[in-house]
Structure formats: structure tokens, C-alpha cells
């Protein structure tokens, strides 16, 4: 055997080890997602516990796969397509680990759902889960076989899962408004649908890495068409709503604003009256939302927190989002009429407006 053929054999051996590790990790992720769906659809708490207990195995496999890919880079010093293969494997390792996290998140919500006993109507969740699992199989096969066309087709399938999630969320809102279950069950079920959708999102990212590996096309990292900013406080009933209302006066085509709370409660009526006097209307704009109702929190470029607990919660999340903490006293905490508390609302309005003007200017100037 010549030196060149020996080097090629060593290269292929190491690449096969990485492929086998990806296949094994993907298999564990598929089992986790199926287990979470089984727990949800069939009410099997044991399946939920198994998913949670087995999540550590996926974390271990991520470390093994990362080690193999890094050793491949050091030992083989690959170039061109082989180099992209190693980088793709490292990225896919992260995406698969996140799929395991989403499955564990569904399992934990299922255990909580058992405490509130809602009528789940599980069929739409099962349908969305099966669609995501089909994407997972195709996404992994696309990487293992270096199939760019399969990667593209699998990425396109994500839109189907997104539409399923939209239908589920619309039905959940209707049923919650009709009194079929309470706000806690609604938040849990909404989180479940978001977690399943996120599985499809991670698979799309995997396929984007495969496409890059095959073609050099970085489909995942196109420049954003919009810059998303989210305002968050504890209840989404005063300061975050005020910030979103003020933000609507910013006329910039690339800026999109939303608001949410950890535990949403009805909008402060004094706030509605105060903003109406300033020509700002929130009554028909957005009812209070929880963070679980924000689709794809990871796509927000900036999150502004008005509470220390919220800031801490956001900081521990593994997202590329930039988090700011604006200290603004909550005027809704004060007793009395709007006339008696007006100055507190004026102070909060001024602080938020000044912060927002500076933030928007910085965002626009960075372009």
C-alpha cells in the first residue's frame, strides 16, 4: 500500500467514526422525541421519566462526537470538503444535543400536565411530532450520505411543521378562551408545541450545515431581514406593554417589537388610560403573553428586561440574544387612580423612551 493510499484509508476511517457517532447520537435523539410523544399522547408518565433520565446519555454522546471531530482536525489537517465535513459534524452535534433538550422539555411539561389534567387533544401534537421525526431521519441521512438535494428538501419540510404549530396554538387559544382549561395548562401545552417545532428548527439547521459541507453554501447564515426586539417583565401588564407601545412610534422598516412576561396578568387599566392620552393604544394591540407564547425566542436579537428575576432567567439561556436590564420602577405597583399616580407613569414613560431612542439609534448606526 502506497503512502497516499494509507493516508486516504486513515482519513476515511476517522470520517466513518464520526459518521457512526452522528448516527448513534441521532438514534438517541429519535428515541427521546418518540418517548416524549408517547408520554404526551398516551399519558405515560414512565415514558416521560425515561426521557429525562436518558438525556445525560445524549450529552455524553455530544462530547464524544465533538472529541472525534476535533481529533480529526488535528490528526488529519483536512482541507476543502473534508474540512467542511468536520465543521459540519461539530455543528450537528450541537443541534442534536438541543433536540434532546427539547424532548426532555416536552417530557417535563407532560409530568406537570398530569397535575392539572387538561383534555389534551393529542392527535395534532402527534402529527407534528411524526413530521419532525421524519425530518430527523432525512436530515441525518443527508449528512451521512452527503446528499445536498435531500438536505434542501428536508429544510423545506420545516414550513409544514411550522404551519402545524400555528394551527395547534390557534386551537389552544380558542379552547382556553372558552374555559376548557386554565392558563397553566394553556402555557404548558403551548410550550410543548413550541418545543416540537424547535426540533424541526434544529433539523433545518443540521441540513444547512450539510448543505454547506456539500456545496460551500452557507444557507444558515443569511443576513437578517428584520431586527427583533423583545420587552419582558414579570406580568406583561405595564412596563413591557408601555415599551412596546412607545416602540410603535419608531418608523424603521427593519425593526420589529414584541413584549411578554413570565406570568402574564391583565393589562393595568391606568396604563391603557395613560397611553391613550398620549395617542397610543394597546387595548386592541396585544393581550398579555407569556414567554412560552413567543415563537422562537432565539431569533430575537435583543431582549430588554425590566426585572432582575427576568434578567437572570434570560441570561442562563443558551441563545445568541443580547440581553439588557433597564431599571424602571413599576408604576402599577402604586395604589390610587391615574390622577394620583400620574407622575410615576410619566417617569417610567420618560426613562423607557430615552433608553429606546438610544438603543434604536445604536442598532441603526451599527448597520
UniProtKB/TrEMBL annotation:
A GO biological-process term: intracellular phosphate ion homeostasis
Domain Phosphotyrosine protein phosphatase I: 227-362
Record-linked InterPro entries: PhoU (IPR028366), PhoU-like_sf (IPR038078), PhoU_dom (IPR026022), Ptyr_pPase (IPR023485), Ptyr_pPase_sf (IPR036196)
Similarity remark: Belongs to the PhoU family.
Protein known as: PhoU-like phosphate uptake regulator
Organism of this sequence: Luteitalea pratensis
